[in-house]
Design goal:
This protein is of the alpha/beta class. The chain folds into three domains: 5-41; 67-274, Rossmann fold (3-Layer(aba) Sandwich), CATH 3.40.50.300; 280-457, 2-Layer Sandwich (Ribosomal Protein S5, domain 2), CATH 3.30.230.10. The chain is built from eleven helices and 25 strands. The structure holds thymidine-5'-diphosphate and magnesium ion (MG).
């Protein structure tokens, strides 16, 4: 009898070794090795059948078969997928527990079933009645939707083959296991093996499969990075659990571009799409005419989004002044403060500075710099910034305003939302002739302030 080989596998990156190691030489994580028995080593050569279906061929001989996409009927989800679910593709949706992954996929299942598509929902974490309860809450009912509470991969595979659905949802990949590997569900080998087999099913039977994956505390997709490499599309589901909005972001897509985002709101009846997200973030702006508040046009993916930035500056009661930033990077704020002190002589050494992005959204792009700077300046000078002016621009260390991407989309979004003026970097070339919105170009931070004075009312 062949000897059963055992190996140690790093649960973080999938690195394999014959003996136990405290620290992984690949990803440098500590204590991540787990012993796994490799039963595949027991296979005799005669048992392994290799079918060569696609011999090498010339590029010119390859026939293009058109991708068939299935629309989810949820336009924000379709947009992130690049126009719908590609038939025969394997999609991973990753996100924190409780963010709404099961919810959106059950809603998607409901929508597909309305179009007479068959969906098999594998519920490996919750019982059938729990899924039914959620389905009732979401108003999902259809005889084309099959719920299968199962964790065993072999049984799952059998039912996929029997039912031949249009879409399979696996909730979640960390909860299913295959008997060909002896480690427990959720280990790197299990995830890799199950994912690999799902990929084969998807490709050989032309069935689209969406798998759910949990994210670890550090923000990685739990277990292995290998999962990301194997699938066709990786979609991240983000958002603050304490807030109602959620963002779907595509981080890898073999069938579309990766800069798209979809925005949703979580409510009592599940997730609803937010077609005009700027409205959501500007809801209360027109009523707030306070010093230290500006509107910037940020870009989520390729999508422009108007958000309000607020700054509060006041004399510090502490020995060292405090700098607190919510929704923007603190080091970015510190850099802007340094530029303001050095280039326009704003003395902030005895002042506490708080910067906040309204709505709980994270703005992680330098294009927000000028808006943040003007929020701080207007707060220090106790003036109100014109409600009708939006701002974009990155600030360089010498106080120069640098170009930003997607400028025309940003201008159009501001115009759409009824803004009369937009301050943009001089170096941004604008092709379009914008009617109904005045485009003010600035080169230096000081110029931005003096040009902005025109729009500052007392
Ligand atoms: P869920 O989809 O179960 O999250 P995940 O699968 O990512 O772990 O969603 C869980 C949260 O969403 C839970 O806290 C309750 C909330 N929720 C709503 O607010 N409204 C709803 O209609 C549903 C179904 C869930
Ligand atoms: Mg879930």
């Amino acid at each position: 009898m062949a000897k059963i080989k055992s190996k140690y596998v790093c649960q973080n990156c999938g690195y394999e070794t014959a003996g136990y190691l405290g620290k992984c030489p690949e990803c440098a994580s500590w204590g991540s090795f787990i012993e796994e028995t490799d039963s595949s080593s027991l296979k005799k050569e005669s048992e392994i059948s290799i079918i060569d279906t696609t011999p090498p061929m010339k590029l010119s001989e390859i026939e293009m078969n058109k991708e068939i996409r299935i629309s989810t009927n949820i336009s924000e989800f379709d947009r992130v997928l690049g126009g719908g679910i590609v038939q025969g593709s394997l999609i991973l949706i990753a996100g924190d527990p409780g963010i709404g992954k099961s919810t959106i996929l059950l809603q998607t299942s409901g929508e597909l079933c309305k179009e007479s598509k068959t969906v098999l929902y594998i519920s490996a974490e919750e019982s059938a009645s729990q899924v039914k309860l959620r389905a009732e809450r979401l108003g999902v009912k259809s005889d084309n939707l099959y719920i299968y509470p199962q964790t065993n991969f072999e049984l799952i595979k059998k039912h996929i083959e029997d039912l031949k659905p249009n879409l399979v949802i696996v909730d979640s990949i960390q909860a299913i296991y295959t008997t060909t590997i002896q480690s427990s569900a959720g280990s790197v080998s299990q995830i890799r093996e199950c994912c690999n087999s799902l990929m084969q099913i998807a490709k050989s039977q032309n069935i689209s499969i969406i798998v759910i994956g949990h994210v670890t505390k550090e923000g990685n997709i739990a277990g292995p990075k290998v999962l990301e490499h194997m699938v066709d599309t990786v979609i991240q589901f983000e958002g603050d659990k304490s807030k109602t909005y959620r963002i779907l972001r595509s981080i890898k897509n073999r069938f579309g571009n990766t800069s798209e985002v979809g925005i949703f709101e979580m409510g009592g009846n599940g997730l609803t799409e937010i077609i005009n997200p700027s409205d959501l973030f500007l809801k209360e702006y027109s009523q707030t005419q306070t010093p230290g508040s500006t509107i910037i046009v940020t870009s989520e993916g390729t999508r422009p989004l108007l958000v309000e930035i607020q700054a509060l500056v006041g004399t510090t009661p502490y020995p060292a002044p405090r700098r607190v930033a919510n929704g923007v990077d603190t080091s970015r704020v510190l850099q802007i403060l340094a530029v303001l002190e050095k280039r326009i002589g704003l003395n902030l050494s005895k002042q506490d500075v708080y910067v906040n992005v309204i709505g709980g959204i994270d703005v992680n792009e330098p294009a927000a710099d000028l808006g943040i700077a003007l929020a701080i300046v207007t707060c220090v000078r106790d003036v109100v910034f014109d409600l009708q002016t939006a701002i974009v621009g990155e600030i360089g260390l010498s106080g120069e305003i640098r170009a930003v991407n997607h400028i025309e989309k940003r201008i159009n979004e501001a115009k759409k939302l009824g803004f009369k003026r937009i301050i943009i970097p001089e170096s941004n070339e604008v092709q379009e002739n914008f009617e109904g919105i005045e485009v003010v170009k600035v080169r230096k931070i000081l110029e931005a302030i003096t040009r902005g004075v025109r729009s500052i009312k007392n």
